[in-house]
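Data card: per-record layout.
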Amino acid sequence: MSTLEGHCMCGNVRYTVDDGTDPLMTVVCHCTVCQRQSGAPFSLNVVLPEATVHVSGPTVGEYETTSEETSTPVQRRFCTNCGSPILSVLGSMPGIVAIKAGTLADKSGLEPTAEVWARSKQAWVETNDDLGVFQTGFRTD
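The structure for this 141-residue chain is written out next.
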């Protein structure tokens, strides 16, 4: 995959990923918070080590969510100007972030490797049994 970089719709918030950093995984998330945040039945996320992702811009906002599905908080970073979600800092996985794949400049090499929160998916959405499909989030214990 090429160098990972991206930005929000208006371009005020940008991010880069350290050269040579490959995604840990690309995950389809069906949780109800991702559904609400994306306005779609799921969100596609590129999972990376937090230390390799550098976000900048004058309108970076942050909002903490804790859903009915889990009591672990998630810090969601977004552009306060255009509203684009940028990434999530996962409380259940310290040191890991999930970049919203739609914000990447080059999405051509992305393929999902797992699906999480499948129990919250919309009834008409099919999961891909060739991937790791988790009914909840990843277990970290």
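Known properties of this structure: The chain has one domain: 5-123. The first strand starts at residue 5 and ends at 7.

See the next section for split statistics.
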